[in-house]
Amino acid sequence: GAGVSQSPSNKVTEKGKDVELRCDPISGHTALYWYRQSLGQGLEFLIYFQGNSAPDKSGLPSDRFSAERTGGSVSTLTIQRTQQEDSAVYLCASSYPGNLNTEAFFGQGTRLTVV
Amino acid sequence: GDSVTQMEGPVTLSEEAFLTINCTYTATGYPSLFWYVQYPGEGLQLLLKATKADDKGSNKGFEATYRKETTSFHLEKGSVQVSDSAVYFCALIGGSSNTGKLIFGQGTTLQVKP
After folding, report:
1. For strand B108-113 and strand B11-14, is the pairing parallel, antiparallel, or unpaired?
2. Has residue A2 got a pLDDT over 90?
3. Contact A93 B107 (CB under 8 A)
4. What is the pLDDT of residues B61-83, one digit of tens each?
C-alpha cells in the first residue's frame, strides 16, 4: 500500500480481555517497529523486527505483550489479559534501513482503551 | 545503550519568536539523527535528518546541525508560526548496536500563540 496501515483505529476492550493490533507496513520495508504513546507522554519502544533476524523485544513491558511478523510483512501485537494501564495509542512504523539513513514511516496508530 | 534526551516542555512562544529545542544523544559509532513532528490529531512524520557529523538538515524553515563534538542535534527556527504548534521528537538510528533500531527522545511540546 501507499503507507503504513494499522487496524483497528480504535479499540475499546474490557479489562482482562485479549486484544490483537495489526500493522501492514509499506511493501518492501524490512524493518518494522512498535511503539506505545500514552496520553501526554513520549514514544515508548516496544519491539523491532528486521528482516529474518531475531526481533528486539527489549521494550515489551511484560509477558502479557507479544508480537509476531508473518512472512516478513504484516505484524500483529497481542496484549493478553489487558489492564487499564495498557490504554494508549499503539504506533507501528516501517522502514528500509539499507544504509541506516532512511526515515521510518508511521501509521496513524490504534487507540486502545481498557475499561 | 543508545539514548536521546530532549529538553522538557511545554515550550510556549509568541508568533515570530525564535525557537530552539535542545537534543543530545548518547551513542558510540556514527548514528543518523532525525527530528520527527506530530501535529495535533496526526501521525508522526519526518521533519528533517542528518546522517554524518556537521551535516545540517533543514525543512519548512527548521534547521538542525549534527554536532558530534557535543553529541547534539538542536532544532531551530528563526520565526515560528501558530501552525508550528506540535510535538517534536528527536531520534537516532545506527548507533552502538548498528541494528537499525530507531530510538526516540521523550518529545517536546511546542505551543505558539498569536
Report:
1. parallel
2. no
3. no
4. 999 999 999 999 999 999 999 99
Are A91 and B94 a contacting pair at CB < 8 A? no
What is the phi-psi region of residue B110: left when phi exceeds 0, alpha when psi lies from -120 to 50, beta otherwise? beta
The DSSP-derived string for A12-62 is: EE-TT--EEEEEEPPTT--EEEEEEE-TT--EEEEEEEETTSPPB-TT--S
Q: Which of B94, B92, B96 is nearest to B28 (CA)?
A: B96
Residues in chain A closer than 8 A to B106 (CB atoms) = 41-43
The 8-class DSSP code of residue A111 comes to: E
User: Residue B51, Cα to own-chain centre: how many angstroms?
Assistant: 13
Give the separation between CA A14 and CA A84, rounded to whole angstroms.
9
| Edge-to-edge strand ranges of the sheet holding B56-59 | B19-21, B75-77, B62-65, B56-59
Residue whose cell numbers read 509568541: B14
Of residues A35, A56, A100, nearest to B93 (C-beta)? A100
Best residue in A56, A103, A111 for a mutation probing chain B (most B CBs within 10 Å): A103
Q: What is the pLDDT of residues A37-93, one digit of tens each?
A: 987 678 899 999 988 888 999 999 999 999 999 887 999 999 999 999 999 999 999
- Cell 524493518 locates to A31
